[in-house]
Amino acid sequence: MSSWDEEFSKPGHRYGTEPNGFLVETAGRLPPGARVIAAGDGEGRNGVWLAGQGHHVLALDASAVGLAKARALADQRGVAIETAVVDLSAYDPQPGSADAVVLIYVHMPAGVRRAAHRNLMHALKPGGLVILEAFHRNQLGRHSGGPPDVSMLFDLALLEEDFGPDIRAIHAFEGDVELDEGRGHRGRGAVVRFVGVKV
Ligand SMILES: C[S@@+](CC[C@H](N)C(=O)[O-])C[C@H]1O[C@@H](n2cnc3c(N)ncnc32)[C@H](O)[C@@H]1O
Residue 59's Cα: distance from chain center in Å? Predict the structure, then answer.
C-alpha cells in the first residue's frame, strides 16, 4: 500500500470535502459542460465540486483508496465522476481531449512531475486551461502543509519551464495565503497559483 493509500485509509478527508478556494475563484473561466481532468484528485473534493458545476470530470490519481472515497463523495452529492488509477508520469491521454486540467497540490519528485505535466498538457485542446495551486519553495520548514522536500515544491519559473511555450500564463501569483483545508492544510502558507491557456 502506498503512503497516499495509507493516508486516505484514515477516517475523514485529509483536505476536507470542500473545494479549493482558488479553484472556486477561477472555475468561472471554464466553458459550460467542460471536459475537465482533475489530476491527482485524491479523495475527490475538487473533482466532485466541478461535477456539481455541470462539468464532465475525469479524476486521475495513483491512489485507488483516494479515488474510492472520491466516488463515494460523488454519490453522496448526487453527481457523477469518472475515475482512473494512473501514475501521471506514465499517463498517455488522447491529445486535445480536455478543456481543462486542474492540479491542486499535486507534489511529485522532479522527474515524475516534469513527465506528468508534459503528459497532461498533451491532453489539453488549444484554448484549454490549466488551473494549478501548489506550495511554493518558501513553504519549506513551515507546518501548514506540503512535503518537507524543496525539490517537490514549486515556483512560477519552474512552471514556465515545465509547461513550455504552448502554455501562456493568464494569472500567476506567488506569495502567502491563509489555508483552511481539512487537517492537511492549515494556517499561513506560501503558494503558487497559476492559470494558463494552451495556445
Ligand atoms: C496533497 S494530495 C492532493 C489531493 C487533491 N488534489 C486535493 O487537493 O485534495 C496529492 C495527490 O497527488 C497524488 N499523486 C502524487 N503523485 C502522483 C502520481 N505520480 N500520479 C498520480 N497521482 C499522484 C496523490 O496520490 C495524492 O492524491
Answer: 10
**Top-level class of domain 3-198:** alpha beta
Q: Provide φ and ψ at 102, rounded to 5°.
A: -115, 125
Pair 113, 52: CB distance under 8 Å: no
Q: Which atom of ligand 1 is nearest to the CA of 38?
A: 6
What is the per-residue pLDDT across 7-28, written as a single tens digit (0 to 9) for each?
999 999 999 999 999 999 999 9
- Reading the block at residue 144, the C-alpha cell is 501548514
What residue ranges in 15-142 does DSSP mark as E strands?
35-39, 56-61, 82-85, 98-104, 124-135
CA distance 189 to 101: 23
Measured CA to CA, the distance from residue 130 to residue 171 in angstroms comes to 10
Residue 1 pLDDT > 90: no
CB-defined site of ligand 1, < 6 Å = 4, 15, 20, 40-42, 45-46, 61-63, 66, 87-89, 104-106, 108, 112, 116
Tell how far the Cα of 67 is from the centroid of ligand 1, in angstroms. Answer: 10
User: How would you classify the pairing of strands 124-135 and 98-104?
Assistant: parallel
CA-proximal residue: ligand 1, atom 4 (nearest): 42
